[in-house]
Amino acid sequence: MTRGETGLKSAPRVDLIYIDAGGGHRAAASALGAMLARQHPAWQVTLINLRDVLEPLDFIQRLTGVRVEGFYNGLLKSNLTAGSGAMLRILHLLVRRLHPKMVPVLAAHWAARRPDLVVSLIPHFNRAIFEGLRGADTSLGRPATPMATILTDLADYPPHFWIERQEQFVICGSAAATQQALAAGLPPELILRTSGMIVRPEFYEPPTDSRITARRALGLDPEQPVGLVMFGGFGSRRMELIAKRVADAGLKTQLIFLCGRNQELRERLAALDLPYPHHIEGFTSAIPRFMRLADFFVGKPGPGSISEALVMGLPIIVERNALTMVHERFNTDWILRQGVGVVLKSFGAIDQAIARVLDPEHLAAFRSRIRATENRAIFELPAMLDDVMAAAGGVRRSAVKLGA
């Protein structure tokens, strides 16, 4: 299959770029890859971990023996996220220093792979990815390969986080991100708008078992409200605080704790003498199933977990303080503006937030506003990416939409 001057022939090759820092980028890439396979089975879709391509330049691994994403994930696991703004500035300085070395490595990679579309689902490295792709095109003497960056955050955290001023498409999941792309100087025809963040297709599927039966199987009372407590793939020590505070308050609720790969946290929670029914789970791919059993969500304000909870109709309780990652603070404002949850200064007040969410009048209002946030991004993206390749070939199949 080749790509000529006037457009694509059959079976385009599409590369989806992710990293393992935090887990959300891989999850988004995997979800998109699965949906592309479903809607465009002829496409040759490959998921590529950027770290594998740039591993020779991983200075953190050379100095410490720990890969860069392992270093980041260790910070999350240990709650060492205070001062994330300063850490981000250091990261961007290092990215700028490494940029001249990254571009030729990426150019050689793209020249060998010859993709018809490159889709980035990661921040920080989009300028290097783009320039490497253009370098490959020049060396091969072929037309410019289209690139699209799909923001997996509700908004950018400029400068040089997600959106770069370069001839590439940017796909935004919120009005705020769309306006940021325009403010960065991108022309409207390069900005596409989805109805939200990428959420795995499994979250949209109907349940396969009885909610009452499934709750009982976990040792939960089917008649009492259930909260799902989740802090990403590595958990958080704040889950202990939440567990104890709910116990001290004597709330008539139950909790499911998803601890991810944090075995120590799982053991510490299991050692607590909690007076209410609860279930503790380690790393699991069955998050949709657990969310279907819940009535509300408690966790960090990550765009992925927020979006998953909303697709499942769950009011959200999150915390915003010095520990909140700077690029996730917008998400807490978004939750309040949409009226879909409660934002606390500290999970020390989790009992008050749960009582508010479960108040019948408040709960009905939360659910009504959640229904209004209908997110179908995962089903919209295959057609948008088809448009991107068509536009690169000089054929526009449908209008790029900015949305409100």
Q: Roughly what fraction of the amino acids lie in strands?
A: 5-15%
CATH topology of the largest domain: Rossmann fold
CATH homologous superfamily classification of the largest domain: Response regulator
Structural class: alpha/beta
- How many structural domains can be distinguished in the coordinates? 2
Which regions have little confidence, pLDDT < 50, spanning 5+ residues?
394-404
- How much helix, percentage-wise, in residues? 40-55%
Total strands: the figure is 14
**General shape:** elongated
CATH architecture of the largest domain: 3-Layer(aba) Sandwich
Radius of gyration from CA coordinates:
22 Å
Structure annotation, total helices: 16
Q: Could you tell me the mean pLDDT?
A: 90
Order of strands in the sheet with the most strands? 4-3-5-6-7-8
The largest pleated sheet is described as: 6 strands, parallel
Oligomer: single chain
SSE ordering: EEEHEHHHHEHEEHEHEHEHEHEHEHEHHH
CATH class assignment of the largest domain? Alpha Beta
